[in-house]
Design brief:
The complex is a heterodimer of chains A (79) and B (205).
Chain A (H helix, E strand, L loop, with lengths): L2 H4 L3 H5 L5 H12 L2 H18 L8 H16 L4
Chain B lengths: L6 H8 L3 H10 L1 H12 L2 H18 L9 H20 L5 H4 L35 H4 L2 H12 L3 H12 L4 H8 L3 H23 L1
Classes of the chains: A mainly alpha (79), B mainly alpha (205).
The complex binds zinc ion (ZN).
Zinc ion (ZN) binds next to α1 and α4 of chain A.
């Protein structure tokens, strides 16, 4: 494997989607290549930064409306 | 059938447990907003989509039997609401955003080929980010850049990266919600992460 190919396999690697043989070749390459090690680390870091976008406060007005909708659903007629 | 972690949430919701409903609204607000913003391009319209999603969930909750996980069901509804809204808005959106090129499923390289030498080895290797302080990576400005990079992605990539990396779905759930193959799911995710990485690289250098 060469770097140009290895970078395209990184998501498959992180997802555990590589065959056993490809996984071994991938890990062999990474072990001896600083550039690909850094790239893999960048992708991992990117993924974790993206995960931070999940935290977003619900605007108070929207939350109040939704809770009120929930209460009328709860007290409303059920099919 | 094995119990899913959100089985108990579903039962509590159906029983009218307001605290569980409120917790779900708060937990999924970020991912739902990111998903919606991509379709409507306006925060207030995106909030409408999120609101309509929850109202649709309440209207259909009694009929939902839990064949998929609660989370998958909620995000499936959100996608429907957002896509319907986009169709309604289509006539007012500029042409460029309707016909933007979407190479989500292509196998074109995700790293600039000029960064590799003739033998396919790195010529300009990526920086080692281990010395970049976490406070900088997670600064408000970095997060704003990442958010807008995701909002600019082609729709098919954006859906996958939001469900995987913002909402925290596993690969199988994303393939199911979007009705795509696991291979397509990975190709789109890879292209999307590579695009966001590039934005971070330019910013963190
Ligand atoms: Zn390499």
């Amino acid at each position: 494997m060469i770097c140009r190919e290895v970078v395209e396999l990184m998501t498959d690697y992180l997802d555990g989607a590589l065959s056993q043989e490809d996984r071994a070749r991938f890990e062999d390459h990474i072990a001896g290549c600083n550039g690909c090690t850094a790239y893999l680390e960048q992708l991992r870091r990117t993924r974790s930064v993206i995960g931070r976008l999940a935290a977003e406060p619900v605007p108070a007005g929207l939350e109040a409306e939704l809770l009120s909708a929930f209460r009328s659903w709860r007290s409303g007629p059920r099919p | 059938m094995s119990r899913r972690p959100d089985d108990s949430d579903l039962a509590a919701l159906k029983a009218g447990d307001e605290a569980v409903f409120q917790a779900l609204v708060q937990r999924y607000h970020g991912p739902l907003m990111r998903l919606a913003v991509g379709y409507v391009r306006d925060r207030s319209a995106a909030e409408d989509v999120v609101q309509e999603t929850w109202l649709t969930c309440l209207r259909s909750l009694d009929r939902f039997e839990g064949r998929s996980s609660l989370k998958t069901w909620i995000f499936g509804i959100a996608l429907n609401v957002a896509r319907t809204r986009r169709r309604k808005d289509a006539r007012v959106l500029p042409f460029a955003s309707l016909f933007r090129r979407d190479d989500s499923d292509s196998s074109a390289p995700t790293v600039d080929p000029r960064r590799f030498g003739s033998e396919g080895k790195w010529r300009t290797p990526p920086d080692d980010w281990s010395n970049v302080p976490e406070s900088h990576v997670l600064s408000r400005e970095t997060l704003d850049r990442v958010r807008s990079a995701i909002d600019r992605l082609p729709p098919r990539q954006r859906e996958v990266i939001i469900l995987r990396d913002v909402a925290g779905f596993d690969a199988q759930a994303v393939s199911a919600v979007l009705a795509i193959t696991p291979e397509n799911q990975r190709v789109r995710l890879h292209r999307a992460r590579a695009a966001v990485r590039k934005v971070l690289e330019e910013y963190l250098r």
